[in-house]
Write a structure and sequence with these properties.
The longest helix is centred in the C-terminal third of the chain and has 19 residues, at 301-319. Helix 4 packs across helix 5 (256-264). The relative contact order is 0.12. The protein has 433 residues and is of the alpha/beta class. It has eight helices and 28 strands. The strands form eight sheets. The protein has a six-stranded mixed β-sheet, with no helix packed on it. It has four domains: 5-16 and 173-319, Molybdenum Cofactor Biosythetic Enzyme, Chain A, CATH 3.40.980.10; 22-42 and 145-171, Molybdopterin biosynthesis moea protein, domain 2; 49-133, Molybdopterin biosynthesis moeA protein, domain 3 (Beta Complex), CATH 2.170.190.11; 329-415, MoeA, C-terminal, domain IV (Beta-clip). Pathway: Cofactor biosynthesis; molybdopterin biosynthesis. Its cofactor is Mg(2+). It comes from Aciditerrimonas ferrireducens.
């Protein structure tokens, strides 16, 4: 009996909890999930300072501008002011420098000009507070800066650095062991003997895991020997936080891995037939004293990668503490028919995607859709979700699970903003550099 995708995913994701936490230096924490909230120990900025190069002054002295003020001194970033601003005076100030006592505004240098020795002309009136960064403008002492569960991006790491944090508590990144099994597999680059095939699943899965920021352990190829497979499974279950294998999960398969997994898991492996294509067969269970999750993926290379997207990646992101476990799903429009046959399953077709001039997502087939045709998967940016039926005509709306979002072709930034090509702007027709 076919199991609905949502139910199969719930069987997997519903049993998983985030891993324990660890402390890391900020330099190693990008992309990790915060394990505990962080509170600002003081105001940021901690002192009033200038947002511009210019002149610190009293706003009331600029009423009726243009006016000429006496230049009393200069203060640079990193220096303490050594002269206050008195009526009719101004202090030359650089961006980030502390605001001198008596000043309540900064006139940017573009609105000034020299008016003689130690004199500056202010071109227009400056309102109080202009171009001044006051204490606490960004963060107040005691304010929650980041909450547990937030993903640490480069900007949030900068925020932590700004309040003096050097190490941060994060959810551990799962270590994922990946292996292939079967006497038919080869890693030899030379000519293949009859009946042998090259192992593509393990390299592809290891690369996919690494691209998604999971730690990996390459467990190699295991031959069809029950004792060898059982020993490798037990050892890996003590070293890793999750295990991934491919092949031997279809109905009727009685290969060594399936037999050993049933034994090592204590009969807790669930062998499912999910109502999707590709990637219908799928196995899931818990192993070892730590009950780490094991994912049994189909052997066909496309099925293996689709199964990874629908089950393995979301599960590992849950272990890593992420609240959002799936990739983005965008609304697209088919630019050609996407045919299929009714079979009671949801099909995930490999598609190329492009951002069109009107901002919509154009979708086309990436090529061969058979589960062994890995080349089409390599060309795809997404998986089009096509419900049971005869497929979709050209111009139909379609949901697309983006797998390679960074590879989406489309208008360049300058074209999207409606400005000239920045690479040639101001070149005067000369050579582009």
């Amino acid at each position: 009996m076919l199991l609905p995708l949502a139910e199969a995913r719930e069987r997997v994701l519903g049993s998983l909890e985030p891993l324990s936490t660890e402390r890391l230096p900020l330099a190693d924490a990008r992309g990790r999930v915060l394990g505990a909230e962080v509170v600002a120990p003081g105001d940021v900025p901690s002192f009033p300072n200038s947002a511009m190069d210019g002149y610190a002054l009293r706003a009331e002295d600029t009423i009726g501008a243009p006016v000429v003020l006496e230049v009393l001194g200069t203060v640079l970033a990193g220096q303490a002011p050594n002269v206050p601003v008195t009526p009719g005076g101004a202090v030359r100030i650089m961006t980030g420098a502390p605001l001198p006592a008596g000043a309540d505004a900064v006139c940017m240098v573009e609105l000034t000009e020299p008016a003689g020795p130690d004199r500056v002309r202010i071109a227009r009136a400056v309102p109080p507070g202009e171009h001044v960064r006051w204490p606490g403008d960004d963060l107040r002492a005691g304010q929650v800066v980041l909450r547990a569960g937030e993903v640490l991006n480069p900007a949030s790491l900068g925020v932590l650095a700004s309040i003096g944090v050097r190490e941060v508590e994060v959810v551990r990144r799962p270590l994922v062991g990946v292996w292939s099994t079967g006497d038919e597999l080869s890693e030899d680059p030379g000519p293949l003997a009859v009946g042998r095939i090259r192992d593509s699943n393990r390299p592809a899965l290891l690369a996919r895991l690494a691209a998604d920021d999971f730690a990996t352990l390459d467990l190699g190829i295991l031959r069809d020997d029950e004792a060898v497979v059982a020993r490798a499974l037990r050892e890996a279950a003590e070293r890793c936080d999750a295990l991934v294998t491919s092949g031997g999960v279809s109905v009727g398969d009685r290969d060594v891995v399936r037999l050993v997994l049933d034994e090592v898991s204590g009969g807790e492996m669930a062998w499912m037939q999910v109502a999707i294509k590709p990637a219908k067969p799928f196995g899931f269970g818990r192993l070892g004293s730590r009950r780490i999750p094991l994912f049994g993926l189909p052997g066909n290379p496309v099925s293996s990668l689709v199964s990874y997207e629908l089950f393995v990646r979301p599960a590992l992101r849950r272990l890593a503490g992420h609240a959002r476990v799936d990739r983005p799903v965008l609304a697209g429009v088919t630019e050609e028919p996407l045919p299929r046959r009714p079979d009671g399953k949801v099909h995930f077709l490999r598609v190329t995607c492009r951002i069109r001039a009107d901002g919509t997502l154009g979708v086309r087939s990436a090529g061969g859709q058979a589960s062994h045709q890995l080349h089409g998967m390599a060309a795809a940016q997404g998986l089009a979700v096509v419900p049971d039926g005869t497929g979709l005509p050209a111009g139909a709306p379609v949901s697309v699970l983006l797998v390679e979002a960074d590879d989406l072709p489309g208008p360049g930034l300058t074209e999207s903003l409606g400005v000239p090509d920045l690479a040639s702007a101001g070149s005067g027709g000369g050579p582009r550099r």
